């Protein structure tokens, strides 16, 4: 490790004292910081060394580096693997056989019952495949779940099929975010394939993280089918599944007393407002992020390029002066010009490194938040119905037993929605901690690593 | 001086060995770099200290800082006072009494005879004055030459008068750059007065640096008049000066053999092309500089502000979640938002610090370069006349003696133009070295000093 320090004031060495004369602005290498008595042993660029008063030196620090380092440390550390979200399970976790369950938990109210080891999968290795004797070609992705560790292959249209199934089955209770955009042009270009794979990975991770979705037959089929036959049979069964839409609530057994409907309504209202406001906030961030991205890769890059060109151009003109003794100036001007061209490239490449992940995460959240109005709508309509229960009994439309069943059903829906809210919040905190950390780490890397390369 | 280092890999201390356990990404303070054996004594943020392998640490360096430091060192050092330009005078400098002289010199050809100690002046202390019982008000600047050290007061219109005199007297031989713009609106605003003063200072410096201009009666009068009477008398005399325009060449005594007219023409052509190309280069740099300035103070500032606002906004929304345990995230998001707002301010203030001087110098050069076509035009016309000399003698328009006088006059003009070219080149090299150094130093200061403030 070599330390550099900058000289702040001129210092003249006293002869015979092993001191070093230094000039303001000079950069010296620190040989020994522990000489004591307020002295530091330093070496100048000509290789001469000696003592310099400590107060005459300062260490070069980059304020942006400091800024981002301090910031980065304020975010709580999270691990950066994909699906490692761990929600505290409380004591005595209880899982009810084949039905999805949830249970009341400490501070936050109802939560889903999370599996001890969370499901995860890796989407990788996109390969071009073809059928009908090469007439039709497509891209196949390898999906490997951490449970079987056995890869299965899927095309985009299979993911799309899975999405449709999940939406149909869970859409009333759980927001199922859309898949990354369908897109036909550039479908086989490397950049596009990489981007789509990354987004499919993100989508799969989110689904894996959801204890209800990830535990469903159709999701398990998608991840673990062993051969074409099993896949086709499973597909047919899933398409015939009748436990879809509101029916899904019948699978949930809260094993808990009915919730207070007033409190549930308030929470629901709060959450509804929250998701709307977060949606605005996320869209706002995406908007400025996009503008900044475009400015960095467009006008700003061009501007630094132009500054670089202007310096180099001036240098060329100066070279034609026919006047002697300006080689140092023209060389330096050319170097300055080249540095600015380099900076222009670095600036243009940066968004793909730092903004990219921030944008991707917020895009995912934009999709997710877009699902909530429907989920909440189903819920509100149901509560309305319970409210009208007495009238309906009076009008003879339903009997008291029906009303009781309805109330119980609503209670289950309430549990489910609240578990979903809590699932959303804990994921959100995890995701935003992670994305901010990655973003700031990239800022730090931006300033730091290039220093090592030079 | 405190040195920080960043931990690159995890390191587990062996018990009893005075070692320190550190984690990748952690920042430690270096207590002793000279422990030896590949070890460094470091302290972590909790105040614990111990030995860490040297290879596990790296020093934080900011690549931009490195870039600019390296660049800055490539430019030859020049002192940053105003008029300290020193042109080597060669041996045996010869000055002829009251006439302006020049002499041949080593590599570059004819140069003006420069005074041993260059003239300089300081324009400072703008004060509002008024006359006609306060009906008319104006700004008066204090001008103090380094020869008398006695300040004299001048209004802008006096500078303008001086400019007119110098243009009339020397315009055929020496490019006299225009004064900073006349401007009526905002004439008494602080910003404007400061800017005008700075530009008047720049203009005066350039005039002081010119050995012929600075030695003239009218320029000396402007700098050293002792009272209103002396000023008025001097003014009247200067306005009646008949040694103006081409007549000024009669004041120059090259005391040297006639120059080769072909060579002079070639040099003149080269210089003409050079000034045209430099003019383009300077305008180009001014253009991108202006665009960059506007982007920094306008869209870029707003963009960083918006990013900052978007983070803070998201933080506020998150605060309304009603979910427990996200205070760390929202605090960190708010901090990130505030940092970006701070960065936006810093970015917006930067051009005034770094670009400003680069722009001012190039603006000055734009003005100066604009004068050359006229100066060169006068010269070319004169050469043409000498060419026609024989014809004119044959046609009886002039006699042989006239032709000889004419040839001698042209020779003087050639000396003068070449001295002027050399004056321009040496000043240009000095100015651009200086301005690039200041510019790069400001870049370094931009990244560095804020580190100390924090």
Automatic annotation (TrEMBL), chains A, B:
CDD domains: PX_SNX9. It comes from Oncorhynchus kisutch (Coho salmon). SUPFAM superfamilies: PX domain, SH3-domain. Belongs to the sorting nexin family. It is found in: Cytoplasmic vesicle membrane. Gene3D superfamilies: Arfaptin homology (AH) domain/BAR domain, Phox-like domain, SH3 Domains. This is Sorting nexin 9a. Residues 1-62 form the SH3 domain. One of its GO terms (molecular function) is phosphatidylinositol binding. The gene is SNX9. One of its GO terms (biological process) is endocytosis. GO terms for cellular component: cytoplasmic vesicle membrane; plasma membrane. Residues 119-229 form the PX domain. Keywords: Cytoplasmic vesicle, Membrane, Protein transport, SH3 domain, Transport.
């Amino acid at each position: 490790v070599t330390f550099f320090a900058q000289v702040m004031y001129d210092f003249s060495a006293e002869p015979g004292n092993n001191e070093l004369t230094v000039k303001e602005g000079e950069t010296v290498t620190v040989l020994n910081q522990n000489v004591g008595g307020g002295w530091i042993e330093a070496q100048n660029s000509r290789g001469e060394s000696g003592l310099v008063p400590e107060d005459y030196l300062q260490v070069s620090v980059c304020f942006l580096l400091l800024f981002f380092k301090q910031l980065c440390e304020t975010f709580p550390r999270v691990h950066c693997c994909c699906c490692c979200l761990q929600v505290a399970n409380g004591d005595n976790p209880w899982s009810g056989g084949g039905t999805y369950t949830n249970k009341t938990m400490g501070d936050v109210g109802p939560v889903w019952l999370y599996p001890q080891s969370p499901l995860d999968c890796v989407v990788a290795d996109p390969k071009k495949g073809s059928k009908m004797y090469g007439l039709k070609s497509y891209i196949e992705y390898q999906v490997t779940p951490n449970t079987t560790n056995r890869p299965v292959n899927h095309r985009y249209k299979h993911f799309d099929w899975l999405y449709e199934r999940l939406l149909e089955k869970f859409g009333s209770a759980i927001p199922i975010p859309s898949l990354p955009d369908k897109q036909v042009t550039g479908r086989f270009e490397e950049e596009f394939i990489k981007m789509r794979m990354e987004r499919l990975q993100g989508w799969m991770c989110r689904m894996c993280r959801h204890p209800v979705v990830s535990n469903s037959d159709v999701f398990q089929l998608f991840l673990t089918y062993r051969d074409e036959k099993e896949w086709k049979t499973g597909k047919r069964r899933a398409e015939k599944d009748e436990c879809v839409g509101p029916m899904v609530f019948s699978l949930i057994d809260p094993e808990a007393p009915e919730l207070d409907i007033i409190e549930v309504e308030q929470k629901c209202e709060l959450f509804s407002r929250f998701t709307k406001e977060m949606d605005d906030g996320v869209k706002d961030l995406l908007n400025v992020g996009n503008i900044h991205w475009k400015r960095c890769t467009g006008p700003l890059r061009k501007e630094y390029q132009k500054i670089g060109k202007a310096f180099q151009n001036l240098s060329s003109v100066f070279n034609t002066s026919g006047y002697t003794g300006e080689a140092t100036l023209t060389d330096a001007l050319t170097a300055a010009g080249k540095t600015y061209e380099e900076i222009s490239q670095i600036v243009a490449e940066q968004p793909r490194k730092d903004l990219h992940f921030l944008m991707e995460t917020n895009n995912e959240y934009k999709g997710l938040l877009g699902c909530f109005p429907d989920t909440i709508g189903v819920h509100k309509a149901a509560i309305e119905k319970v409210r009208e229960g007495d009238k309906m009994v009076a009008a003879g439309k339903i009997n008291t037993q029906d009303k009781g069943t309805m109330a119980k059903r609503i209670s289950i829906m309430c549990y489910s929605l609240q578990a979903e809210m809590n699932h959303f919040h804990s994921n959100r905190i995890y995701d935003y901690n992670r994305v901010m950390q990655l973003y700031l780490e990239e800022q730090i890397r931006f300033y730091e690593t290039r220093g090592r390369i030079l």
